Amino acid sequence: MSDELPPSYQAYRGLWSLLHVALLAVGAMLLGSWWFTDSNGSDLVAGWWAWASNVQQTLFHLIPFPWVALTR
């Protein structure tokens, strides 16, 4: 058995890499198109921001500050 790669491997690898780059480019274009259509991106960020703020407020009310116990 030989340790050398067959000559077709380089062509196969180049074609496979090109296909992946093309798929990533198409995916990025579709995502960008969706993001800017009907303010979907803005709605997504606003929803995430509201959720993160809600988590922050919940944790703020559940976990007391250490110095609050000292004043009681």
Can you walk me through this structure?
- There is one protein chain.
- The protein is elongated.
- The model has no long low-confidence stretch (mean pLDDT 90).
- By secondary structure, it is mainly alpha-helical.
- It is 81% helix and 0% strand.
- The chain has 3 helices and no strands.
- The protein has helices at 8-36, 40-62, 66-71.
- What is the H/E string? HHH
Bin the helical content.
over 70%
**Beta-strand residue fraction:** under 5%
Pairing-aware structural class of the strands and helices?
mainly alpha
Q: Rg, please?
A: 26 Å
The number of E-state strands comes to 0
Short description:
With 72 residues, the chain is mainly alpha-helical.
Outline the fold blueprint:
Blueprint: H1 8-36, H2 40-62, H3 66-71
Key terms:
mainly alpha, elongated, 72 residues
